[in-house]
Amino acid sequence: MTDEHDGRAGFGNRLRRLREDAELSGKELAERLGWPASKVSRLENGRQTASAQDVRAWAEAVDTTAEVRDELVADLRSLRVEYATWRRQLRTGFAPVQRAHVVLSHATTHLRSMTTAIVPGLLQTTDYARHMFSGVSKFDGEPKDVEEAVRSRMRRQEVLYDPEHKFQFLMTEGALRARLCPPAVLRAQLDRLLVLSGLENVELAVIPFSTRLPIAADHGFAIFDDTLVLVETIGAELAIRDRDDIVPYERTFNAFWDVALHGQEAFDFIAALALELTPPSR
User: Fold this and answer.
1) 3.30.870.10, 3.40.50.2000, 3.30.200.20, 1.10.443.10: CATH of 83-276
2) For 137-150, what is each residue's pLDDT tens digit?
3) What is the C-alpha separation between 147 and 240, in angstroms, rounded?
4) Domain range 3-79, its CATH number among 3.20.20.70, 3.30.70.360, 2.60.120.1600, 1.10.260.40
5) pLDDT in the model for residue 268
6) Across residues 122-138, what is the average pLDDT?
7) By three-state DSSP, how is residue 179 classified?
8) pLDDT above 70 for 2
């Protein structure tokens, strides 16, 4: 049984106690709410995650206090942040996670990505991606399916050439300078960014070290349409689906996007970084 299911079950028990305290049967509560009785059962037994609207309606139907209602909504928002450790996700290798991202990328119409330490996976060259996966594998001390993961990541990039999808990539200068691979590989990666910047549905923006920032750039994140935010930490990946919790990420992205370099300025900045990595002519 997963932690996510345990959390839903615990939340469902709280809803059940409120119903029982109101001396209502599941059928009676369903009638008040205009729901099928099966929905009440699913929520109480943790087989379905409630929405904030569901919780507010439930609280009103059982005539609980505003304080209890607000506490339930706050706890629901925490429950809807899915926490998946990398140890659990990568136990069978890198490739399954990459294949899942292929599906997610193709299902997303508008992707907004902000990175502070690395070039986004959708923009990586084969060699750059290979160094990223190999580095993680060595750090963990466990050999993994690096080559298969690289191939999956490259297949994922096919979506960049679909004009029905829009991409906004926001990178800090630190992400572009990070020496996570040999200089020649990083130079080729920067050249790749210059090529991709020519796609009509791809926008690249760069935040130089000298930029006056609106707030601290604590970590990167990706926003998939307006329904999902993924945040990668050292130990886990957070999946945020509650609309109220997605809004701050959208505001943060927009604030950094507004102070970044775009268009020709971004192109020239990346080109200058690439030039720094060019070996001197003999």
Assistant:
1) 3.30.870.10
2) 887 766 578 888 89
3) 30
4) 1.10.260.40
5) 98
6) 91
7) coil
8) no
